[in-house]
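User: I'm curious whether this sequence folds into something compact or stays loose and floppy. Could you predict its structure so I can see for myself?
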Amino acid sequence: MSTEVTTVPAPLGGRTAVVTGAASGIGAATAEFLRGQGATVVGWDISGTAEAGPLDLTDAAAVKAAAAAVVAEHGSIHALVNCAGIITPNLPMETVDPSDFQKCFDVNVVGLVNASQAVYPALLEAKGAVVNVASQAALVCLPHQSAYSASKGAVAALTRSMAIDWAEAGIRVNAVCPGFTLTPMAVQQMTPELDAAVSRRVPMGRMFQPDEIASVISFLASDASSAVTGVVMAVDGGWTAGEPALPMGGAA
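Assistant: Here's the prediction. I'll summarize afterward.
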């Protein structure tokens, strides 16, 4: 009796993806996950590593040149994941230096715009997809994060605007809003008290690993989500679904 082996094609086989912020955290996890799905991944990051070429996303000319280099080497770009982001010190709104707002918007919003505009011609040819990494803070604000929350709220709004503008061109644009995820940026802010409070507040009762966010990004970048555009998707263990800890009873 013969046994036939069925080979399942890699979901992103033959595709080229650009991932910004690819040196660490969700960006690094996404780059690794997409490679595992068959994609050729080009990483961009301000720091520059073996896996992510150095690039300042606030320099529009440099970003445009980097996008042209990707097309020259790989022929096209099928997906863009805008993951690069920063957070400034957590302070009450009345004490935040205006420069902190500028820093957040320069990287989190203007950097995303520069990357998206630079890659647009290749995405247009490929009928590709963009996935923006916003934040839970775009949906429900946390204390003392006014600059960061404002910038990520802008990412959510920009995602919907891009989706509308680019739909007729065949380019899908979506966003993920991660909850508390164990990235280097998040770990810097963690205390035992915050860890316990988050675990109580999240219905699933835990924080998340970067690869759990990466798997959702991969779905939105692939043809498996071919009818999905303009979605700003919470990936937060149910935080934005509601409050799990109210003593509402429930006994029969």
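Summary: The beta strands are 16-20, 40-45, 52-54, 79-82, 129-133, 172-178, 232-235. The chain has one domain: 16-237.
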